[in-house]
Amino acid sequence: MAGRxxxxxxxxxxxxxxxxxxxxxxxxxxxxEIEYSLQQxxxxxxxxxxxxxxxxxxxVLADSSLNAFVIDSEHIFVHSGLILKLQKPEMLxxxxxxxxxxxANGHITRRLTNAANxxxxxxxxxxxxxxxxxxxxxxAAAGVAAGxxxxxxxxxxxxxxxxxxxxxxxxxxxxxSAGVDPAAMIEVLEIFRGxxxxxxxxxxxxAQSHPLSRDRLRAARGYAAAYTPRNNPENNNAYWFAxxxxxxxxxxxxxxSTLRKIDRNDNSDIALMRRAVAxxxxxxxxxxxxxINALAARRPSDPFVHELLGQIHLESRDARSAVRAYxxxxxLSPRHPLLLAGYGRALLALDTADGNRRAxxxxxxxxxRDAQQPRMLRDLAVxxxxxxxxxxxxxxxxxxxxxxxxxxDARIHATRAEALxxxxxxxxxxxxDVLRAADAATQRR
Length: 445
Known about the structure:
The chain is mostly helical. Helices cover 60% and strands 5% of the residues. The chain is built from 21 helices and 6 strands. The longest helix is centred in the last third of the chain and has 19 residues, at 426-444. Helix 14 packs antiparallel against helix 15 (319-332). Keywords: Hydrolase, Metal-binding, Metalloprotease, Protease, TPR repeat, Zinc.
């Protein structure tokens, strides 16, 4: 499971720079298996809404509070705390359907249009925005560039009651079209019932950005009553929900607690995966390998199983075994950027001339498919440095610091890259864009 990220890049073209309290800021959990599993749950709802599942992605924020939100038309963010709170896939799909409705109904597009006076980062071609919902008052740190931080955050994420009602209605329709019972929407709303009577400091962020009313609950009950269930023999929602939630919990919660929750006679896919993660974190390498190898024997064509096997080997300092496992994962899913990033990291760990050359090639492929991975960018910078390309090493380091919100550090490395790279080259122009983004952030403070 990848580390935490403070700033997330999205393809919109405006520059929002977050002003965060570092001690409270939470970040993205980048894990290929979890993201894939959540995407499987969102896919039928996105199709029902007429949106492309290849464009709208679901990401997890490492935050124990309960929230989900969208900040543009291509990304849905959900807190890890909300995933672990919900007990069945239909409830999480109700959350997704509601957020998808905000996108489909144009609520976010209007907000971005209203923020059009923000500075651009044209060369980056992306929006520097805070996909972080853990500032002091529980508001997400998005839209800071549109005004003062507190006001902008509240205005950008706080939906009106009419928008919430509209999203509920559309979300229920998307659920019904996808064969998901809209009654799950009621169960989600009941979790937040009574939140508005609490002091703001005690409310979950979801209650602050998604105002709840008796009318919303009444309408949700009406949507559920009108739904006609239908059989769907290919419905794998329970499996993907258990897989995403199970792995997330195994990595976040105490490993001993994870093991206690698994029945000793349970040898299902999910149980084997959870045991492997828990034993790995203890650490108990032999037990971790026993479980993940058993799962790999059962699911030999599952790239995410081989990825986890590679992670266990790599973090146990067995680089050669890690390379073999990641190589198999990439063979099974050759275009997945997170798998490519892991493979490149394992190749670097070999610390050989051949491994370094291969790592650079693989990490460049990962970057081309998903540049929003600070850990990958760190590895890519190392690979460039080992190849003698110090200009690209400095540029990649500057990009990583920009992603992390450390724009003063990004400026230092972008300045170095500017001096080392050929004037007018793609890398030189990108260094200029990082410098402009850093300067814009300084001017707004």
